Amino acid sequence: MPEEKHIVTAGQLVQLVGKSGKAKILRLSPGAKHQSKDGIIEHDQIIGEKWASQVSSHLGEAFTILQPALDDLIRTVKRNSQTLYPKDIAYILLSLGIGPGDEVVEVGSGSGAMTIALAHCVGSEGRVFSYDRRPEIQSVARENIENLGLNAQVTFKLRDVEEGLDEKNLRFIIVDLPNPEDYLEQFKAAMLPGAFFACILPTSNQVSTLLLAMKKAGFSFFEVSEILHRYYKPVARRLRPADSMVAHTGYLFFARHVRESNLERK
Amino acid sequence: MPEEKHIVTAGQLVQLVGKSGKAKILRLSPGAKHQSKDGIIEHDQIIGEKWASQVSSHLGEAFTILQPALDDLIRTVKRNSQTLYPKDIAYILLSLGIGPGDEVVEVGSGSGAMTIALAHCVGSEGRVFSYDRRPEIQSVARENIENLGLNAQVTFKLRDVEEGLDEKNLRFIIVDLPNPEDYLEQFKAAMLPGAFFACILPTSNQVSTLLLAMKKAGFSFFEVSEILHRYYKPVARRLRPADSMVAHTGYLFFARHVRESNLERK
Amino acid sequence: MPEEKHIVTAGQLVQLVGKSGKAKILRLSPGAKHQSKDGIIEHDQIIGEKWASQVSSHLGEAFTILQPALDDLIRTVKRNSQTLYPKDIAYILLSLGIGPGDEVVEVGSGSGAMTIALAHCVGSEGRVFSYDRRPEIQSVARENIENLGLNAQVTFKLRDVEEGLDEKNLRFIIVDLPNPEDYLEQFKAAMLPGAFFACILPTSNQVSTLLLAMKKAGFSFFEVSEILHRYYKPVARRLRPADSMVAHTGYLFFARHVRESNLERK
Amino acid sequence: MPEEKHIVTAGQLVQLVGKSGKAKILRLSPGAKHQSKDGIIEHDQIIGEKWASQVSSHLGEAFTILQPALDDLIRTVKRNSQTLYPKDIAYILLSLGIGPGDEVVEVGSGSGAMTIALAHCVGSEGRVFSYDRRPEIQSVARENIENLGLNAQVTFKLRDVEEGLDEKNLRFIIVDLPNPEDYLEQFKAAMLPGAFFACILPTSNQVSTLLLAMKKAGFSFFEVSEILHRYYKPVARRLRPADSMVAHTGYLFFARHVRESNLERK
Lengths: 266, 266, 266, 266
Prior knowledge:
4 copies of one chain form a homotetramer. The first copy, chain A, is of the alpha/beta class. Chain A is built from 7 helices and 15 strands.
């Protein structure tokens, strides 16, 4: 019954796009209402409609119903701090090769942007363990995960990683902390030999500090890089990059838990 | 039985890293042999060992046994053409939000780099349909997919998309062709309203041409960008970018199958 | 009398830097006053002082007296349009090798940013001819040049280059027009064989159009490039790039007036 | 007599461009010969010819006679070390505002690439003082300067700047040393208050070290940046960046000799 795919159903995430271009993401719940300055839309107006069709607010404003992109979900999270960017999250996911069924530990819940992407990637067979010691930070990440209905894949742990991780034999650990060098023993205790470590660091000094500490601690296969993402104005006859761009988010830092320090990655 | 995770088993992909840093990826098969200029290693030497441990060739050269990263799998495919780069593949996957269980059509099999990443992301519940009209190209992609044991998720179709796609109600279509503007009707016929379109184009002229054609054909939400990936030399006390970098692979082009041309994405 | 160099004299350009970091550039004139929200400073307070010393406004605010950098002069011009950036001006000047005593034609006076840099480079023995057909544009450029005391080196011509240039045997012509391809015959008539042509173009379509037209018109040695300038936050213990940057100003386009179309520059 | 400008004369620098695109720069000397694998050309064949005309070698190969760009002079110097790139030299010259008649000290002669550009910019009324303590390095820079006939503007000093500089009241000092922080007192003794300091540093650690030292030594107005230069393939119908680019040469570091450490540049 391929027709079903066309139809928006209760419980799904939809993105409403109005004339002003503002894209609001909501989870459909029978009886609920969506309020905006362009008027009220009842969720029941949307449920049962076709994707990419339009509904009107009580003020007569038209909104198009779209499936949100993962990119959109990440960009529109409620924020408690500097959030990670899709360009960086994307490369970390691919570089580590995180996929369906994987178990991943994230240290530093942040706003949950990485948590969302991880939960999406590992799917219902996988699991994300997200550590943070700051309750006010983690509660925002938790809220974002709940709003997107990704709870089943994510376990939040309110804890300082100084005390160690519960997991063992991890293949992947992703760290968003200012001082990962202080917890290398805790990370190693939780990692499978050969496991992948990734983190993002804002300053070059942090990169230098972490490189020194990780070499000493028996990590290797270091890769440090940065991703620049340059948008273009999508105008066919006047194609050109946008005027400004994000110049820096952080340095991406990858390593593996392999003690042979004489190994050099090609 | 967490110990199991430590043990390398027959059928798994392993990456052998020797002193020279060369990283060879192979699928373990009892009785098979791996030959290199640093000597022969029997697969049976590896099977049953722990991850990140070492084995020696008959010439006494040590090799470390690692799980290959997805990144490594993509970079080491046998090539029949300019292959896609991890930086671009990563952003396309995230931007579209491809995940476990998804069905994706890829037009232009290329060397199979994107196919591998897609197959990995959609997992055993998902499916990738990869079209190409050139048998000599597709056979290489097929070989790469088979070598990595990803056959179950991938269906290759040797066909000119001029004749249309078999699939309907697709949420995702990814195109690696020099002239996607010639097949927009075929793409639309296979896409769910609101579905995601992504392609990568080497020249600015192609971007302009495609923008014009897609606007006329009722696509919208255009996003054009490029990803620059800059590596650093991972030396703590002399941290600096590498001397040279890839300056260009292609322009990333995203659109959605929504007819309302007056919509503007935020 | 090396001491003289330390002393600020009437007629010089000075940059006043106050607590707020705002840098105002003015030409010292006996009897004149400089007003700002931080109070009034008499030019006579500055004349006779040492460079890098401080003066106080009538409100007691301290200002440091500095020699302005060329960079500062360019950045602080009064603007009538999108102005050229130091990064691009710098590379054009060096690439062409403009120096003391040179004669240069500039087509498109703009805000005078390039005019200022050219006048500075060619010095009192050189000359800049700046064409523009729009009186309201050129009057701003003229005002900027006069404020900096560079009149002697610059001749403004209020004219459409459609009518041709007065100069002959030019070694350098720099164009800031949206449609340079429409005036190639006029440019050629004014250029010495082998002379240098430079322009800056915002869109890729313009680059393609100009390449086609110039090849047909007998130019060669084409070079197209772009300059990206990324600032860092100058903090020793937290060194990192600034958050955002200018992503695009224009494509730099160089060519030479040599008819042999089969020549290829290394 | 405008015709004169068309004519190549003895003593001038010319660039010979042959079919292979190789561009050789030579100074014309009556009676001299230029040898290449494409045959011999007598300088006397070139003297008296028009710019952009062609001469033939004794093997019948045609060469076009062009005025070399400053850019070409810099790129083709004989090298003794990592040489500075035009993109960086250009921005330093503009940022400092070096022009006709200026006196500049350069510390670290290198291959003379910066020396050439400085000598060109300051012209016959100006002067460049170039310090280096390594005779084998400075002799190459000296040779390059002599080959280009720029001797009159340049004074080489074979000396360790540890011993101090001879010049006083300098407005500009440009440093290409790995450890400029070790000579700040020497630099200050030679600089006019408010004078401009520029250097280029390969690693981020050096930038951090120098920032700390200069703040302590009473410098301010720090600016740290990097210039990326991306070339395009100049093909009208297939416009795109080149495949690879220089990813890093060095960090550009600017400061001014002003003691007020509370000043912040806008």
